[in-house]
Amino acid sequence: MKNLLQKPMDMNKFKVDSIFICIFIFAIIFFSYQEGMSYVTRLLSIPLLILFMVRILILKYKFIIPLEFILVGLWLFYSVVCGIFSVNFDVFFDQFLVCLQVIGIALVLLNLLFWLRNPMLVWSSIFFATLIMSVYILQHPKLYYINGRLAGRLQNANLYALALVLSYVYALNRIIASRSAGIKVFFLASVPFILYLIGESGSRKGIIAVVFFGVLVFVLHYKYIMNKSVVTRISIILMFVALVGASSYYISQSKHINRMESVVSALQSRNISKADGSFKERLKLYEYGWKIAVEHPLLGVGLDNFRVVMARNANASKGVYSHSNMIELLASTGFIGVALYYSIYSSIFLKLIKIKRRYWKSRMDENRELYITTFALLVIYFMYDFAMVTYQGKLSWIILSSIITSTSILSERPRNSYILDVNMRKMNESTSIVEALH
Protein backbone atom coordinates (compact mmCIF):
# COMPACT_ATOMS: atom_id res chain seq x y z
CA MET A 1 0.00 0.00 0.00
CA LYS A 2 1.76 3.08 -1.22
CA ASN A 3 1.79 6.03 1.16
CA LEU A 4 1.31 9.19 -0.89
CA LEU A 5 1.92 11.57 1.99
CA GLN A 6 5.38 13.07 2.32
CA LYS A 7 7.57 11.46 4.97
CA PRO A 8 10.50 13.09 6.78
CA MET A 9 13.79 12.71 4.88
CA ASP A 10 15.56 10.93 7.74
CA MET A 11 13.38 9.06 10.20
CA ASN A 12 16.42 8.28 12.40
CA LYS A 13 16.30 11.89 13.57
CA PHE A 14 12.90 11.23 15.09
CA LYS A 15 13.54 8.00 17.01
CA VAL A 16 13.99 9.85 20.30
CA ASP A 17 10.76 11.79 19.70
CA SER A 18 8.83 8.58 19.05
CA ILE A 19 10.24 6.86 22.13
CA PHE A 20 9.38 9.74 24.47
CA ILE A 21 5.90 10.15 22.97
CA CYS A 22 5.20 6.45 23.56
CA ILE A 23 6.51 6.63 27.14
CA PHE A 24 4.40 9.72 27.79
CA ILE A 25 1.23 8.04 26.47
CA PHE A 26 1.91 4.96 28.58
CA ALA A 27 2.28 7.21 31.63
CA ILE A 28 -1.05 8.89 30.86
CA ILE A 29 -2.78 5.50 30.78
CA PHE A 30 -1.00 4.04 33.82
CA PHE A 31 -0.40 6.95 36.22
CA SER A 32 -2.12 10.22 35.34
CA TYR A 33 -5.38 9.49 37.15
CA GLN A 34 -3.88 7.71 40.15
CA GLU A 35 -3.91 9.52 43.47
CA GLY A 36 -0.49 11.10 44.03
CA MET A 37 0.95 9.77 40.74
CA SER A 38 0.09 12.59 38.32
CA TYR A 39 3.57 14.03 38.86
CA VAL A 40 4.93 11.15 36.72
CA THR A 41 3.24 12.47 33.59
CA ARG A 42 4.30 16.02 34.44
CA LEU A 43 7.93 14.93 34.66
CA LEU A 44 7.67 12.95 31.41
CA SER A 45 6.22 15.95 29.60
CA ILE A 46 9.52 17.81 30.21
CA PRO A 47 11.54 15.75 27.64
CA LEU A 48 8.79 16.37 25.07
CA LEU A 49 8.99 20.09 25.75
CA ILE A 50 12.80 20.02 25.46
CA LEU A 51 12.64 18.14 22.14
CA PHE A 52 10.07 20.65 20.91
CA MET A 53 12.21 23.66 21.92
CA VAL A 54 15.38 22.17 20.41
CA ARG A 55 13.69 21.57 17.06
CA ILE A 56 12.12 25.03 17.03
CA LEU A 57 14.99 27.17 18.34
CA ILE A 58 18.09 25.27 17.22
CA LEU A 59 17.07 23.11 14.26
CA LYS A 60 14.65 25.78 12.96
CA TYR A 61 11.66 23.50 12.41
CA LYS A 62 8.47 25.27 11.41
CA PHE A 63 6.12 25.83 14.33
CA ILE A 64 2.67 24.47 13.47
CA ILE A 65 -0.38 26.13 14.98
CA PRO A 66 -3.52 24.98 13.15
CA LEU A 67 -6.69 27.04 13.02
CA GLU A 68 -8.20 24.72 15.63
CA PHE A 69 -5.61 25.79 18.22
CA ILE A 70 -6.16 29.45 17.38
CA LEU A 71 -9.82 28.82 18.18
CA VAL A 72 -8.73 27.09 21.41
CA GLY A 73 -6.78 30.24 22.28
CA LEU A 74 -9.84 32.41 21.66
CA TRP A 75 -11.93 30.14 23.86
CA LEU A 76 -9.32 30.25 26.64
CA PHE A 77 -9.24 34.05 26.45
CA TYR A 78 -13.02 34.19 26.64
CA SER A 79 -12.99 31.78 29.59
CA VAL A 80 -10.75 34.27 31.42
CA VAL A 81 -13.33 36.99 30.82
CA CYS A 82 -15.98 34.64 32.20
CA GLY A 83 -13.70 33.77 35.11
CA ILE A 84 -13.45 37.39 36.23
CA PHE A 85 -17.17 37.24 37.00
CA SER A 86 -17.19 33.61 38.17
CA VAL A 87 -19.03 32.43 41.26
CA ASN A 88 -15.78 31.21 42.83
CA PHE A 89 -12.64 32.72 41.29
CA ASP A 90 -10.24 30.31 43.03
CA VAL A 91 -12.04 27.29 41.58
CA PHE A 92 -12.02 28.90 38.13
CA PHE A 93 -8.33 29.78 38.33
CA ASP A 94 -7.29 26.26 39.35
CA GLN A 95 -9.24 24.78 36.45
CA PHE A 96 -7.87 27.39 34.04
CA LEU A 97 -4.31 26.42 34.98
CA VAL A 98 -5.15 22.77 34.36
CA CYS A 99 -6.49 23.68 30.91
CA LEU A 100 -3.34 25.67 30.10
CA GLN A 101 -1.10 22.75 31.04
CA VAL A 102 -3.15 20.13 29.21
CA ILE A 103 -3.70 22.19 26.04
CA GLY A 104 -0.07 23.35 26.07
CA ILE A 105 1.33 19.81 26.04
CA ALA A 106 -1.29 18.88 23.42
CA LEU A 107 0.11 21.60 21.12
CA VAL A 108 3.66 20.37 21.71
CA LEU A 109 2.55 16.81 20.93
CA LEU A 110 0.76 18.00 17.79
CA ASN A 111 3.96 19.56 16.43
CA LEU A 112 6.08 16.49 17.21
CA LEU A 113 3.52 14.24 15.52
CA PHE A 114 3.32 16.55 12.52
CA TRP A 115 7.09 16.51 12.04
CA LEU A 116 7.00 12.71 12.41
CA ARG A 117 4.11 12.54 9.92
CA ASN A 118 2.67 9.86 12.18
CA PRO A 119 -0.51 10.67 14.16
CA MET A 120 -1.08 6.92 14.48
CA LEU A 121 1.81 6.81 16.94
CA VAL A 122 -0.59 8.14 19.59
CA TRP A 123 -3.29 5.64 18.65
CA SER A 124 -0.91 2.67 18.65
CA SER A 125 0.56 3.77 22.00
CA ILE A 126 -2.91 4.03 23.53
CA PHE A 127 -3.79 0.62 22.08
CA PHE A 128 -0.81 -1.21 23.58
CA ALA A 129 -0.83 0.76 26.85
CA THR A 130 -4.55 0.07 27.35
CA LEU A 131 -4.21 -3.64 26.61
CA ILE A 132 -1.20 -4.05 28.89
CA MET A 133 -2.96 -2.09 31.63
CA SER A 134 -6.10 -4.19 31.15
CA VAL A 135 -4.20 -7.45 31.55
CA TYR A 136 -2.67 -6.07 34.74
CA ILE A 137 -5.93 -4.85 36.30
CA LEU A 138 -7.70 -8.13 35.61
CA GLN A 139 -5.14 -9.74 37.91
CA HIS A 140 -6.33 -7.38 40.69
CA PRO A 141 -10.06 -6.97 39.94
CA LYS A 142 -11.11 -5.78 43.40
CA LEU A 143 -8.93 -2.68 43.07
CA TYR A 144 -10.22 -1.53 39.70
CA TYR A 145 -13.97 -2.04 39.83
CA ILE A 146 -15.87 1.05 40.97
CA ASN A 147 -19.57 0.58 41.74
CA GLY A 148 -19.39 -2.75 39.95
CA ARG A 149 -17.96 -1.25 36.75
CA LEU A 150 -14.42 -1.80 35.49
CA ALA A 151 -12.66 1.57 35.64
CA GLY A 152 -9.04 0.53 35.17
CA ARG A 153 -6.16 2.67 36.35
CA LEU A 154 -7.96 5.63 34.78
CA GLN A 155 -10.33 5.42 37.77
CA ASN A 156 -13.30 6.28 35.56
CA ALA A 157 -15.34 3.68 33.67
CA ASN A 158 -16.30 6.04 30.85
CA LEU A 159 -12.75 7.34 30.40
CA TYR A 160 -11.47 3.76 30.39
CA ALA A 161 -14.10 2.90 27.77
CA LEU A 162 -12.88 5.84 25.65
CA ALA A 163 -9.36 4.38 25.64
CA LEU A 164 -10.82 0.97 24.75
CA VAL A 165 -12.94 2.41 21.93
CA LEU A 166 -9.89 4.12 20.42
CA SER A 167 -8.04 0.80 20.74
CA TYR A 168 -10.91 -0.94 18.94
CA VAL A 169 -10.88 1.67 16.15
CA TYR A 170 -7.10 1.36 15.75
CA ALA A 171 -7.32 -2.45 15.72
CA LEU A 172 -9.84 -2.41 12.86
CA ASN A 173 -7.63 0.07 10.99
CA ARG A 174 -4.67 -2.31 11.24
CA ILE A 175 -6.79 -5.30 10.24
CA ILE A 176 -7.83 -3.53 7.04
CA ALA A 177 -4.74 -1.48 6.16
CA SER A 178 -1.87 -3.81 7.07
CA ARG A 179 -0.42 -6.07 4.39
CA SER A 180 0.98 -8.54 6.92
CA ALA A 181 -1.22 -11.55 7.67
CA GLY A 182 0.43 -11.91 11.07
CA ILE A 183 -0.43 -8.34 12.04
CA LYS A 184 -4.01 -8.81 10.83
CA VAL A 185 -4.39 -11.95 12.95
CA PHE A 186 -2.91 -10.25 16.03
CA PHE A 187 -5.26 -7.28 15.89
CA LEU A 188 -8.24 -9.47 14.99
CA ALA A 189 -7.53 -11.57 18.09
CA SER A 190 -7.43 -8.41 20.25
CA VAL A 191 -10.94 -7.32 19.25
CA PRO A 192 -12.93 -9.84 21.38
CA PHE A 193 -10.82 -8.93 24.43
CA ILE A 194 -11.45 -5.20 23.86
CA LEU A 195 -15.18 -5.81 23.43
CA TYR A 196 -15.28 -7.83 26.66
CA LEU A 197 -13.59 -4.97 28.54
CA ILE A 198 -15.99 -2.40 27.10
CA GLY A 199 -18.85 -4.57 28.31
CA GLU A 200 -17.26 -4.78 31.77
CA SER A 201 -16.94 -0.98 31.89
CA GLY A 202 -20.71 -0.70 31.51
CA SER A 203 -20.22 2.37 29.31
CA ARG A 204 -23.24 3.09 27.15
CA LYS A 205 -21.15 5.50 25.08
CA GLY A 206 -18.58 2.77 24.50
CA ILE A 207 -21.21 0.31 23.26
CA ILE A 208 -22.75 2.90 20.90
CA ALA A 209 -19.29 3.85 19.57
CA VAL A 210 -18.44 0.19 18.85
CA VAL A 211 -21.66 -0.29 16.86
CA PHE A 212 -21.23 3.03 15.03
CA PHE A 213 -17.66 2.38 13.92
CA GLY A 214 -18.33 -1.22 12.91
CA VAL A 215 -21.15 -0.10 10.60
CA LEU A 216 -19.12 2.85 9.29
CA VAL A 217 -16.17 0.63 8.36
CA PHE A 218 -18.40 -1.74 6.40
CA VAL A 219 -20.27 1.06 4.59
CA LEU A 220 -17.12 2.95 3.57
CA HIS A 221 -15.47 -0.23 2.31
CA TYR A 222 -18.55 -1.71 0.62
CA LYS A 223 -17.62 -0.60 -2.90
CA TYR A 224 -14.05 -1.79 -2.46
CA ILE A 225 -15.27 -5.15 -1.15
CA MET A 226 -17.65 -5.63 -4.08
CA ASN A 227 -14.79 -5.12 -6.57
CA LYS A 228 -12.92 -8.09 -5.15
CA SER A 229 -13.15 -11.73 -6.24
CA VAL A 230 -16.08 -13.83 -5.05
CA VAL A 231 -13.90 -15.74 -2.56
CA THR A 232 -12.44 -12.52 -1.12
CA ARG A 233 -15.87 -10.92 -0.89
CA ILE A 234 -17.32 -13.89 0.97
CA SER A 235 -14.29 -14.00 3.30
CA ILE A 236 -14.55 -10.30 4.17
CA ILE A 237 -18.32 -10.46 4.70
CA LEU A 238 -17.97 -13.55 6.89
CA MET A 239 -15.27 -11.79 8.93
CA PHE A 240 -17.55 -8.77 9.34
CA VAL A 241 -20.48 -10.99 10.38
CA ALA A 242 -18.21 -12.78 12.85
CA LEU A 243 -17.08 -9.44 14.25
CA VAL A 244 -20.67 -8.25 14.66
CA GLY A 245 -21.59 -11.58 16.22
CA ALA A 246 -18.68 -11.39 18.67
CA SER A 247 -19.58 -7.80 19.53
CA SER A 248 -23.20 -8.70 20.17
CA TYR A 249 -22.28 -11.75 22.24
CA TYR A 250 -19.78 -10.05 24.52
CA ILE A 251 -21.96 -7.02 25.03
CA SER A 252 -25.09 -9.10 25.69
CA GLN A 253 -23.22 -11.22 28.24
CA SER A 254 -22.09 -8.18 30.20
CA LYS A 255 -23.69 -7.78 33.60
CA HIS A 256 -24.13 -4.11 32.73
CA ILE A 257 -26.26 -4.68 29.63
CA ASN A 258 -29.30 -3.62 31.67
CA ARG A 259 -27.89 -0.03 31.67
CA MET A 260 -28.28 0.10 27.90
CA GLU A 261 -31.58 -1.77 27.87
CA SER A 262 -33.17 0.62 30.37
CA VAL A 263 -32.27 3.65 28.23
CA VAL A 264 -33.54 1.99 25.03
CA SER A 265 -36.78 1.05 26.81
CA ALA A 266 -37.23 4.60 28.12
CA LEU A 267 -36.62 6.12 24.67
CA GLN A 268 -38.95 3.68 22.90
CA SER A 269 -41.78 4.22 25.39
CA ARG A 270 -40.96 7.91 25.87
CA ASN A 271 -41.20 7.24 29.58
CA ILE A 272 -38.09 8.37 31.47
CA SER A 273 -39.25 6.53 34.60
CA LYS A 274 -38.19 3.28 32.91
CA ALA A 275 -34.55 4.42 32.75
CA ASP A 276 -32.06 3.51 35.46
CA GLY A 277 -31.09 5.85 38.28
CA SER A 278 -27.84 6.92 36.61
CA PHE A 279 -29.60 8.09 33.46
CA LYS A 280 -32.27 9.91 35.44
CA GLU A 281 -29.61 11.67 37.52
CA ARG A 282 -27.81 12.78 34.37
CA LEU A 283 -31.02 14.24 32.97
CA LYS A 284 -31.45 16.23 36.17
CA LEU A 285 -27.91 17.54 35.87
CA TYR A 286 -28.48 18.51 32.23
CA GLU A 287 -31.69 20.29 33.18
CA TYR A 288 -29.93 22.17 35.97
CA GLY A 289 -27.00 23.06 33.70
CA TRP A 290 -29.40 24.49 31.13
CA LYS A 291 -31.06 26.52 33.87
CA ILE A 292 -27.68 27.98 34.88
CA ALA A 293 -26.92 28.84 31.25
CA VAL A 294 -30.25 30.60 30.78
CA GLU A 295 -29.63 32.62 33.94
CA HIS A 296 -26.04 33.46 32.85
CA PRO A 297 -26.23 33.34 29.02
CA LEU A 298 -23.19 35.48 28.16
CA LEU A 299 -20.50 34.60 30.70
CA GLY A 300 -21.74 31.53 32.54
CA VAL A 301 -20.55 30.95 36.09
CA GLY A 302 -16.86 30.21 35.36
CA LEU A 303 -14.85 27.07 34.61
CA ASP A 304 -15.58 24.21 37.03
CA ASN A 305 -18.10 26.37 38.90
CA PHE A 306 -21.02 24.14 37.94
CA ARG A 307 -20.16 21.97 40.95
CA VAL A 308 -19.94 25.06 43.16
CA VAL A 309 -23.42 26.20 42.17
CA MET A 310 -24.75 22.66 42.57
CA ALA A 311 -23.29 22.42 46.09
CA ARG A 312 -25.19 25.58 47.05
CA ASN A 313 -28.46 24.11 45.86
CA ALA A 314 -30.18 22.24 48.69
CA ASN A 315 -32.24 20.15 46.28
CA ALA A 316 -29.37 18.91 44.14
CA SER A 317 -26.47 16.52 44.44
CA LYS A 318 -23.50 18.10 46.13
CA GLY A 319 -20.42 19.15 44.21
CA VAL A 320 -20.87 17.04 41.07
CA TYR A 321 -19.98 18.05 37.54
CA SER A 322 -22.58 17.95 34.78
CA HIS A 323 -21.48 14.67 33.05
CA SER A 324 -21.73 16.45 29.69
CA ASN A 325 -19.05 18.58 28.06
CA MET A 326 -21.67 20.64 26.26
CA ILE A 327 -23.71 21.33 29.38
CA GLU A 328 -20.59 21.96 31.47
CA LEU A 329 -19.25 24.52 28.99
CA LEU A 330 -22.68 26.06 28.56
CA ALA A 331 -22.95 26.62 32.30
CA SER A 332 -19.28 27.64 32.63
CA THR A 333 -18.78 30.01 29.68
CA GLY A 334 -22.28 30.72 28.37
CA PHE A 335 -23.55 30.40 24.81
CA ILE A 336 -20.65 32.36 23.30
CA GLY A 337 -18.10 30.13 25.03
CA VAL A 338 -19.79 26.98 23.74
CA ALA A 339 -19.89 28.40 20.19
CA LEU A 340 -16.16 29.19 20.35
CA TYR A 341 -15.22 25.79 21.74
CA TYR A 342 -17.25 23.77 19.25
CA SER A 343 -15.99 25.85 16.34
CA ILE A 344 -12.86 23.68 16.85
CA TYR A 345 -14.85 20.58 15.92
CA SER A 346 -16.60 22.41 13.08
CA SER A 347 -13.25 23.40 11.58
CA ILE A 348 -12.01 19.79 11.59
CA PHE A 349 -15.27 18.49 10.11
CA LEU A 350 -15.20 21.08 7.32
CA LYS A 351 -11.59 20.20 6.44
CA LEU A 352 -12.39 16.49 6.33
CA ILE A 353 -15.50 17.02 4.21
CA LYS A 354 -13.55 19.29 1.85
CA ILE A 355 -10.95 16.61 1.11
CA LYS A 356 -13.24 13.56 1.15
CA ARG A 357 -13.03 12.95 -2.63
CA ARG A 358 -9.28 12.49 -2.33
CA TYR A 359 -9.74 9.51 -0.02
CA TRP A 360 -13.21 7.96 -0.01
CA LYS A 361 -13.13 7.16 -3.72
CA SER A 362 -9.39 6.67 -4.13
CA ARG A 363 -7.57 3.35 -4.31
CA MET A 364 -7.03 1.43 -1.08
CA ASP A 365 -3.91 2.66 0.71
CA GLU A 366 -2.68 3.73 4.13
CA ASN A 367 -3.87 7.29 3.57
CA ARG A 368 -7.43 6.25 2.81
CA GLU A 369 -7.53 4.23 6.03
CA LEU A 370 -6.00 7.15 7.91
CA TYR A 371 -8.78 9.39 6.60
CA ILE A 372 -11.54 6.94 7.53
CA THR A 373 -10.09 6.39 11.01
CA THR A 374 -9.65 10.13 11.60
CA PHE A 375 -13.22 10.88 10.51
CA ALA A 376 -14.64 8.11 12.69
CA LEU A 377 -12.61 9.12 15.74
CA LEU A 378 -13.81 12.71 15.43
CA VAL A 379 -17.45 11.60 15.30
CA ILE A 380 -16.92 9.28 18.28
CA TYR A 381 -15.09 12.01 20.21
CA PHE A 382 -17.92 14.46 19.52
CA MET A 383 -20.46 11.84 20.57
CA TYR A 384 -18.63 11.40 23.88
CA ASP A 385 -19.05 15.11 24.59
CA PHE A 386 -22.79 14.61 25.01
CA ALA A 387 -22.28 12.55 28.17
CA MET A 388 -18.73 13.17 29.39
CA VAL A 389 -16.71 16.26 30.38
CA THR A 390 -13.60 16.36 28.16
CA TYR A 391 -12.46 19.99 27.89
CA GLN A 392 -9.83 19.60 30.65
CA GLY A 393 -8.97 15.91 30.25
CA LYS A 394 -5.40 14.81 29.52
CA LEU A 395 -6.34 11.74 27.50
CA SER A 396 -9.13 13.65 25.74
CA TRP A 397 -6.80 16.39 24.51
CA ILE A 398 -4.13 13.92 23.43
CA ILE A 399 -6.73 12.19 21.26
CA LEU A 400 -8.07 15.48 19.90
CA SER A 401 -4.56 16.79 19.09
CA SER A 402 -3.83 13.57 17.15
CA ILE A 403 -7.08 14.02 15.21
CA ILE A 404 -6.12 17.62 14.37
CA THR A 405 -2.62 16.46 13.33
CA SER A 406 -4.02 13.74 11.09
CA THR A 407 -6.45 16.19 9.47
CA SER A 408 -3.64 18.69 8.83
CA ILE A 409 -1.43 16.02 7.24
CA LEU A 410 -4.25 14.67 5.07
CA SER A 411 -5.10 18.20 3.93
CA GLU A 412 -1.56 18.62 2.57
CA ARG A 413 -2.11 16.03 -0.12
CA PRO A 414 -2.28 17.81 -3.53
CA ARG A 415 -5.78 18.61 -4.74
CA ASN A 416 -5.19 16.89 -8.06
CA SER A 417 -4.00 13.63 -6.46
CA TYR A 418 -7.49 12.12 -6.62
CA ILE A 419 -7.68 12.88 -10.35
CA LEU A 420 -4.21 11.38 -10.75
CA ASP A 421 -5.37 8.23 -8.95
CA VAL A 422 -8.38 7.91 -11.27
CA ASN A 423 -6.33 8.50 -14.43
CA MET A 424 -3.69 5.98 -13.36
CA ARG A 425 -6.37 3.42 -12.63
CA LYS A 426 -7.97 3.98 -16.06
CA MET A 427 -4.57 3.67 -17.75
CA ASN A 428 -3.89 0.39 -15.94
CA GLU A 429 -7.32 -0.93 -16.92
CA SER A 430 -6.79 0.08 -20.57
CA THR A 431 -3.36 -1.55 -20.62
CA SER A 432 -4.83 -4.76 -19.21
CA ILE A 433 -7.56 -4.83 -21.89
CA VAL A 434 -5.03 -4.28 -24.68
CA GLU A 435 -2.78 -7.03 -23.32
CA ALA A 436 -5.75 -9.39 -23.10
CA LEU A 437 -6.70 -8.72 -26.73
CA HIS A 438 -3.18 -9.45 -27.89
What order do the helices and strands come in, and which of them pair?
Elements: H1 15-30, H2 38-58, H3 67-84, H4 89-116, H5 120-138, H6 141-144, E1 145-146, E2 149-150, H7 157-177, H8 181-201, H9 204-220, H10 222-226, H11 230-253, H12 257-269, H13 277-295, H14 306-311, H15 325-354, H16 366-384, H17 394-411, H18 417-437
Antiparallel strand pairs: 1-2
Labels describing this entry:
438 residues, mainly alpha, two-stranded antiparallel ribbon, globular
Molecular structure report:
- The chain has 438 residues and is mainly α.
- The protein has one domain.
- The chain is built from 18 helices and 2 strands.
- It has helices spanning 15-30, 38-58, 67-84, 89-116, 120-138, 141-144, 157-177, 181-201, 204-220, 222-226, 230-253, 257-269, 277-295, 306-311, 325-354, 366-384, 394-411, 417-437; strands at residues 145-146, 149-150.
- Strands 1-2 form a two-stranded antiparallel sheet.
- Strand 1 (145-146) and strand 2 form a beta hairpin.
- Helix 4 (89-116) packs parallel to helix 17 (394-411) and helix 7 runs antiparallel to helix 16.
- It is globular.
- The model is unreliable at 6-11 and 416-438 (pLDDT under 50).
